[in-house]
């Protein structure tokens, strides 16, 4: 008679994700996840097969969470330029301090190395940019009735990623406030939002 699972795969992947965020991707071993989850390493090998598959499953779980978070926040923000800024600021909230952000970049490296995980990132980009385009669709360029051009969501997302990177070199203040200020200035500079 087969043993009943004490922890679901989701519980194990949550433990693995916490381990990755705390100690970096190199710390994700069957032995470390066994200690973190309370399951034996052999049980984890039976469930996930190889370390590469465990890493992929862990990061797929992180992408699932980011997809859900993006959709949830996106549904709650107003369909305005300010709503677009708030969406990206809220997505920045969990980056934490510079050490946590730097560890996150190591995890991103793992996403970039795996074609399946890169595809998840590309899928998320499309969904995020669609939300940003929806927020900005009702905006008009300052001083004219001309609407903001389609595809501006990608430009705003690109500015967001750049603001995160520049903040990381000089992490003054919290990242969420930095992002909000940077995006407001960007939208004002292109005439798609009020002055910051």
Automatic annotation (TrEMBL):
Domain HTH tetR-type: 6-66
Domain of life: Bacteria
UniProt xrefs under InterPro entries: Homeodomain-like_sf (IPR009057), HTH-type_TetR-like_transc_reg (IPR050109), HTH_TetR (IPR001647)
Residue ranges of the annotated DNA-binding region, renumbered to this chain: 29-48
Keyword Plastid: no
Presence of keyword Transcription regulation: yes
Single GO MF descriptor: transcription cis-regulatory region binding
Gene3D superfamilies listed in its UniProt record: Tetracycline Repressor, domain 2 (1.10.357.10)
Keywords linked to the UniProt accession: DNA-binding, Transcription, Transcription regulation
PANTHER family reported in the protein's UniProt record: HTH-TYPE TRANSCRIPTIONAL REGULATOR BETI, HTH-TYPE TRANSCRIPTIONAL REGULATOR RUTR
Stated name of the protein: TetR family transcriptional regulator
Biological source species: Stella humosa
């Amino acid at each position: 008679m087969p043993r009943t699972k004490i922890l679901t795969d989701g519980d194990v992947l949550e433990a693995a994700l916490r381990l990755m965020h705390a100690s970096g991707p190199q710390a994700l071993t069957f032995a470390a996840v066994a200690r973190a989850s309370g399951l034996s390493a052999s049980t984890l090998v039976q469930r996930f097969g190889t370390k590469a598959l465990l890493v992929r499953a862990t990061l797929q779980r992180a992408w699932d969470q980011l997809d859900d978070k993006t959709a949830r926040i996106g549904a709650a923000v107003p369909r305005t330029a300010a709503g677009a800024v708030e969406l990206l600021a809220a997505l920045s909230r969990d980056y934490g301090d510079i050490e946590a952000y730097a560890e996150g970049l190591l995890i991103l490296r793992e996403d970039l190395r795996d074609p399946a995980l890169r595809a998840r990132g590309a899928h998320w980009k499309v969904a995020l940019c669609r939300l940003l385009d929806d927020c900005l669709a009702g905006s008009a360029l300052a001083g004219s009735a001309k609407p903001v051009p389609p595809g501006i969501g990608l430009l705003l997302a690109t500015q967001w990623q750049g603001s995160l990177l520049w903040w990381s070199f000089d992490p003054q203040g919290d990242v969420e406030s930095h992002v909000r200020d940077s995006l407001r200035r960007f939208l004002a500079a292109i005439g798609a939002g009020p002055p910051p």
